[in-house]
Amino acid sequence: xxxxxxxxxxLLAQVAGAADEGTLEGVRVSALGKKGxxxxxxxxxxxxxxxxxxxxxxxxxxxxxxxxGAIQARRETLAEAALAARLAAERIDVxxxxxxxxxxxxxxxxxxxxxxxxxxxxxxxxxxxxxGPDVETDELNFTALNFPEGHPAREMHDTxxxxxxxxxxxxxxxxxxxxxxxxxxxxxxxxxxVICPGRTYRHDSDQTHTPMFHQVEGLVIDRTANIAHLKxxxxxxxxxxxxxxxxxxxxxxxxxxxxxxxxxxxxQCSRKGGEIRFGEGDxxxxxxxxxxxxxxxxxxxxxxxxxxxxxxxxxxxxxxxMLKYGMPDLRPFFEADLRWLDHYGFRPLDMxxxxxxxxx
Length: 360
Fold this sequence. Notes:
Blueprint: H1 2-17, H2 21-32, H3 37-43, H4 50-89, H5 102-105, H6 110-124, E1 128-129, E2 135-136, H7 138-141, E3 172-173, H8 178-187, E4 192-201, E5 212-222, H9 227-242, E6 249-256, E7 259-270, E8 277-278, E9 283-293, H10 295-300, E10 309-316, H11 317-325, H12 338-344
Parallel strand pairs: 1-4
Antiparallel strand pairs: 2-3, 4-5, 5-10, 6-7, 7-8, 7-9, 9-10
Helix pairs in contact: 1-4, 2-4, 3-4, 6-11
């Protein structure tokens, strides 16, 4: 009797002292498991005499029931305490403003936004998007584009060259996206209408130049492409991109090795109050270069300049983004400052559309 009483006292103390579900389960197993203390006592009943079994049976079974009851009660107490702690931790002050979700709190980088805007505009004109690698060969970046070996025009591009390979040839980081045009002309039959957005690299860094920047070029190749078509495309693009009803453009003669004739394009603007506004004013701002594809480039790409002709243009995505959205310095584009991105970035669900408006 004394042993049963001592065992019960010990087990009930262990149950009461269990601080969590795991500890309580350990107490249950040590008392009521197959090899538990109470289970061992129940196993002895079969070897007792009927008189002893009649006396000890109710005592041992009563001990088992009381321990089971204590364990169940303690389990319910621990569950209630855990629920109370969870409710306290997950308490929400419903008087606070609703927090923005990631779909509204996140921001699209202005470069990504402008690339999407450009794609939407030219896609509406029937242009496809062509892409190519950032690391290019000298032949695709220069030679195929009518830059002969040793030609001074190569010095117009401050090029990042890589280490020579086993044959002594050096690859480079492309200085423009024009190699994508070469790859397209060599892989597709005319008519060709593509734009080539992407990263480009030049050894230059200041307020309006960075070693890595973004560029988009356009290319049209067919039998009748001419300067009038080029002018119309660029005018329609500028009106759609800058969201103005009309623009005045000025084409100035220039020189590019890969086009002939070549031109630089200015767009009419106003600079009053330190703000650039397009479609009005008496000032001009250069925004891109263009021209008719040089016959040598067509030959280098396997096309017959007597059968087809084309035009191309190129502009800096970072530059037109600065002009459209009033960003005074190019360097923050690449500094990963969340405060700057929160100010100049775009909401993820505001996808550019010519129907709904490029900027929502």
